[in-house]
Structures are given as C-alpha cells and as structure tokens.
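Section 5.1 Outputs to date
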Amino acid sequence: MGHRNLLSYIIISLKGVAMGAADVVPGVSGGTIAFISGIYEELITSINGLNFSRIKILQNEGFKPFWRAINGNFLFALFSGIFISVFSLARMISWLLVNQPVLLWSFFFGLVLASIFFVARAIEKWNLGTILAFVLGTIVAYYITTLPASENTASLPFLFLSGALAVCAMILPGISGAFILVLLGSYKTILDAVHQKDFYIIATVATGAIFGLLSFARLLKWMFENYKNTTLALLTGFILGSLSKIWPWKRVLETKTFGDKVIPVKEINISPFQYEGDNQLHFAILLALLGFCVIFILERVATKSKN
C-alpha cells in the first residue's frame, strides 16, 4: 500500500467512479472494474480489516492510528468516487440503456472481454484444479444470467438476505449486484424504498449489505492467500460466463415493470443482422474495440505508476 500522494488518491477516486458506473448497469460488475484497474486485492484486504479490533485501536490510540489501520485514505477515496458516480452518472447511463442500448452494451462487451485475458494472465500455473475452477465459474455465472426474475418479495429477513447477496455479487468480477436483486425479486421493493425514503427497509438492506461485505471479504481474502491461482481461475470463469448477459443484440421476449423502470426478464441473444432496430454495427464494433483497448491502456498506466 505504501505512501501515496494526492494524485494517487485522485486516480483511486476515478477508479471508484468507473466502478460506480459499472454497478449502475444491470449485467456489469464493479468488481470487474476493481480487478482490471489493479485495486481488487487491496480492496478485499481493506474491507476485511474493518473489524472490532480496529475499534480498540480507536479507543486506546486515537483516530490517526485507527485511520491508518483501516487504510482509511484508500477506502475514502474509492467510495467517494463510487458515490459520486452512482448519483451523477446513473441518470446518463440509464438514459443510454433505454436510448442507445446496442452502443452501451458494445462498449461494456469489449471491456469485459479484454478483462478475461487480463485476469487469466495473472494465473501463474494452470493445472487440473485451476481448469475445473475456471469451468465451474463459467457455468455458474452463465446459469445465473439465464434465471428468470422472481416476483416482488418484501419480507424484512428476505430483504436482509438480498442486501447480503447483492453486495457479494457486486464485489465479484463478472456478476452484477443489481441483476441479483432482479432475480431475487427484491429490486422493486428496494427501488421504491429509496424513492419513498422508507428508512426502515433501507436500513434492513444496508445492514444485510454490510454483513455480506464483511463476511464475504474474509472468505475472498482467505482464498487469495491460500488458493490464489484457483481463485483467479474461478473469477475468470465468472467473467466469461457473464458475457452472454452483456451481448449487445438481444430480442426481448418478456418484460416486467419495477416502479418506473421496465426490466427485460426473458431475452435471447441474436446476431446483429436479426436485430429489429438499427444494429449500428460499425459504431458498435468501434466501441467494442475502444472498450477492449481501454483495459490494456489502464494496465499500462497502472504498471508505469508502480515503477
């Protein structure tokens, strides 16, 4: 983690902005962006460090040692970027999803496709275990993307569980937290609660999210420390399996209305030439290539800043 200057923290905030933008899109995970921008393991370690022993440091030694122990500057810079992004870019990305879906999905498709090569390259040794983990990750993620959305569910224990599962998905590369909420049937309840400022429901979901984040980060950190190659192979599989969800050209077979949002719950991937609207093939290919190149530019910048 070392000593960082102001510019380093601004760059971390910008990575947070990119994570927030990805999390707004149902189908793209902020965890993927964290991974390809080189902060994934530090994020997991930092979240894992938020435990009761840190409160003792606060009581006994004061705020400064406590802030250093929880890697506070990093977490503050990153989550500031995520919140800024969610509240400022959410409207624009929602507009693009409705008005220019093919172009938006094409850019993300290129981005996620390149990240498969990027994450797979970090695997130091391929063996039977890593290959099985890769295949398992691919099958699980693909299966999740094919599940139909559930009916709306509003019981508080279920909403607690929804918050925990969605946040786990959010920090996993490849699986989208927003999409998990749609599958569980709690997307509309949570969306309505935010609009209506129902703090009872919001607090229940937030408590579940904090519980999920702290417990899941511990498991991920343990997996990275003990089975790094297998974990990386599993995550690469998750990203590969999620590609079907973000294929730009789809035919919607069934939709459901969640508040003021219409979400496709059953759709099939089709070729650009079967697409009923304007397939925008040339622009789509250019944006997919741009998304693909962005990953390698980010990697080059990250490598230079480390040296």
